[in-house]
# Entry
Amino acid sequence: MRRRTPPPPAPLPQRDGVDPVRVRLPADGAWATVREHLVARLTGAGPGVIEAMFAAGLIVGADGRPVPADAPYRPGMFVWFHRELPAEVPVPFPLPVVYRDEHIVVADKPHFLATTPRGGHVAQTALARLRHTLGVPTLTAAHRLDRLTAGLVLFTVRPEERGAYQRLFGERRVTKEYEAVAPYDASLALPRTVRSRILKERGVHAAREVEGEPNAETRVELAERRGGLGRYRLLPRTGQTHQLRVHLNALGVPILGDPLYPLVTAPVPPGDFRRPLQLLARGLEFTDPVTGVAHTFTSGRTLQAWSAYAEWAAD
# Structure
């Protein structure tokens, strides 16, 4: 099999921890110039924006020099530029680093902070914030937590080592422990292992369970009960999108603060950080594939609905 040639390194530096956009010109196309292609391709930029970027020298080639507006279209050519970042409400919670060495960084992500840039969340992400504060532009995420989930996230320092750490998760060689606060149901027999097939369709907010071979497995334990609430210990063996949220909802004990399960609710306004989803990535345990060191990490966070329910539920 012929290997694809890797793209050249970015000629532009990161900006606030965010990489420049890289565009490769398609192998086939009827455009006469690079500008014509980008205008047709980046329709969301708005009228006149691409032309203004060319005029200001903001679109560059692999050599870091501005690409002229009349540069002829060349299939396979790469160009880079910095996009205008969306207006984002700052997530006003700290992002402590639990562990750092020359290979990895483990951070304790707060609720509401996305792990990596996606959609309208770009600078207000754990990756961008850590790159900027730690001064490590090569930092990348080895896995991802949902924006609404808090807890431990593993990042890699060296790009050439990222695959080794990603394989830990793909090959299920990481022990992950989560904690959730949800209603207590005396009729629910625990502990138990939940297995089902979860389907997450593009463009649909909520995932759902369907018939078929299970692709999701979670061990569910009741760690503690307090009145009508339970604190649950969750041990996933797989990592399907929204897996823990789907499985607890299927058991009849949906996680407190969940805007998707059992019902999809209206989005909250930007800057509304009340009643966070009561789901926490509590622990990570694995043997480092590069150094051979056995790592065990524990989040220092607590779930507010368990420690101070009245404050969590207050308007």
User: Anything to note?
Assistant: The chain has a mean pLDDT of 93. The two ends are 59 Å apart (CA to CA). The chain has seven helices and 13 strands.
